[in-house]
Amino acid sequence: MTQQVPLLINGELVQSESTNIIPVTNPATQEVIAHVPCATPAEVDRAVAAAKAAFETWKETPVGDRARLMLRYQALLKDNQDEIATLLAQETGKTFADAKGDVWRGIEVVEHACNIASLSMGETVENVARNIDCYSITQPLGVCVGITPFNFPAMIPLWMFPMAIACGNTFVLKPSEQDPLTPMRLAELFKQAGAPDGLLQIVHGTKDVVNQLLTHKDTPAISFVGSVAVGEHIYRTGTEHLKRVQAFAGAKNHMVVMPDASKNQVVNNIAGASVGAAGQRCMAISVAVFVGEAREWIPEVRDALAKVRPGAWDDPDAGYGPLINPQAKQRVLNFIQEGKDAGADCILDGSDCVVEGFPDGNWVGPTMFRNVSRDMSIYQEEIFGPVLIALEVDTLAEAIELINENPYGNGTSIFTSSGAAARKYQHEIKVGQVGINVPVPVPLPMFSFTGWRKSFYGDQHAYGKQAVKFYTETKTVTSRWFEDDIDTGVNTTIQLK
Ligand code: NAD
């Protein structure tokens, strides 16, 4: 049998005693590259207990020491970026360039975590009443839990545990069972950077492991990223158990194309943003809304999409890789068929995609629909595949109205040369991340990842200052010192001199 992926508990790689084992496959070939066990309840309990014990020491560790751990970790991740990206590409099917991007966007969050001293500063007001000062301090919560999706196995775990641990917490990560090798490598490097035992545990599995962590008495904070159905369950169950929860969920992202935009920019940017990573990005553009005469560019967008060729991770000419598994491929094919059956025009059909040398890969070619009505399932639901829908409207106001009616609010963009149109769009659109002539507006970590509406449940978002708020409690101290003590107390007189 190929390697069984170990658990990580209290600094040790542990072979699970579980009999419930899931194969990890290469999505381009179906070759089984590893087996991942679903941790037993006793193993999950041990992981939480180890994190809880380590918290007692780690929470007292000076902030400079916590920051220096992150500095060492950042350097190691950078030194090993290509090696991590190779592993990541093999288990996800992403192209090597895209896999490097996945690792890099995670490294940027670790860099941000190095600044934890400034980020976690409290506030002070002197003389809130006569001789009374008030100040706030931030303190960690305890054992924080992360549950992550398959589509960014480096970036999304790195959104979570570095910020949580820099804040003084300890962590239990439950990565996606579909690509657990990358998170394990991230954990090995964290240990190599000098992370004390018990700071980070990894337990594998699916919903039973998640539900145990979600309802455990010793896990006060839950971070989740994944589909909307699971995200709603996580938010409901976690908050019912009185926990702090942030749940990042699915998306349906629209790009508005104004007739005054640069046509070349529009054509190239839509192609990359819609089918890049096989459309398996929560910030992928899945709907392009052409306003007025911009609709004349639809055939050129179609032609640009038709030129993007899927291929294996190490094929330098491949535009994107396979879908993560055969079920994901079948789900996308079903949507394409439903679109056709409902009467939409499939102007580019990637259903019968073949990649030479990889007959068993989960391939779907670039696909594009036109004449789609808003009640069709291909518009209503997140397809999570390389499928672009073109809608046509007459005015910017109509575009804004239709996007605001869509239940999701993760990302959106507008392509225009008009400052006034861009300003109106950024102000009126009910979506949490807006690009102006930027197709995939993922904020850098000095900001936060701010999806809205059905794309996010909670209030404090990932990374940036909001992550520090999420992973800490604020304590407010009101303090008065009696001046009499200065005259009578020997020690204080000396100290205050
Ligand atoms: P998923 O919801 O199937 O799985 C996410 C995690 O939840 C995994 O660790 C999985 O093991 C666990 N899980 C699955 N079913 C569960 C259940 N019934 N109960 C408890 N836990 C369960 O998501 P996925 O397919 O891995 O990832 C793709 C989804 O993630 C897409 O919908 C995408 O939009 C979303 N996503 C969102 C963001 C964001 O920031 N909003 C970022 C990346 C991905």
UniProtKB/TrEMBL annotation:
Keywords: NAD, Oxidoreductase. It is an enzyme of class 1 (oxidoreductase). GO terms for molecular function: methylmalonate-semialdehyde dehydrogenase (acylating, NAD) activity. Pfam families: Aldedh (PF00171). The keyword Membrane does not apply. Its EC number is 1.2.1.27. This is methylmalonate-semialdehyde dehydrogenase (CoA acylating).
